Amino acid sequence: MSNSAMIAPIFTLVIWSLVVLVWMATVRLPAIKKARLGPTAGERTSELGNLLDKRIQWKADNYNHLMEQPTIFYATCLALIVIGQDSGLNLYLAWFYVGCRVVHSLIHCTSNIVMARFSVFLISSIALTVLAVRGLLAVV
Q1: Which residues form a coiled coil (predicted)?
Q2: Which helix (H) or strand (E) holds 84?
Q3: Does the global pTM surpass 0.85?
Q4: How many domains does the chain have?
Q5: Which of 18, 46, 50, 119 is deepest in the core (most CB within 10 A)?
Q6: d(CA 124, CA 129)
């Protein structure tokens, strides 16, 4: 089996998710220590978010976002690879989606301008929808 070019955007988004995880930990753990929160503080992420500065919590919120909709992206890309629809416009859409998710993360983790973040999320969601519809049309 030959490698598909669509594997690259998949791995890129996985690596970006891990970058955000490290970013979250390097900001959040010192903040928890500085706030002198014990090991039972914030047993739920939302509770911990209420105990820390919102700028600290944004990284955790974004990491959670990277564990949500991108799972559909991964499944869609893998399905496109399996059915041989992993090039051309579909490949460009996959890269576009990944780029949008990185931009979304950067907005969310730094300034958190909600309308800017939402706009990028909406555009990425449209790209993902087009990918999924194109995949469905290829098999029906």
Answers
A1: none
A2: none
A3: yes
A4: 1
A5: 119
A6: 9
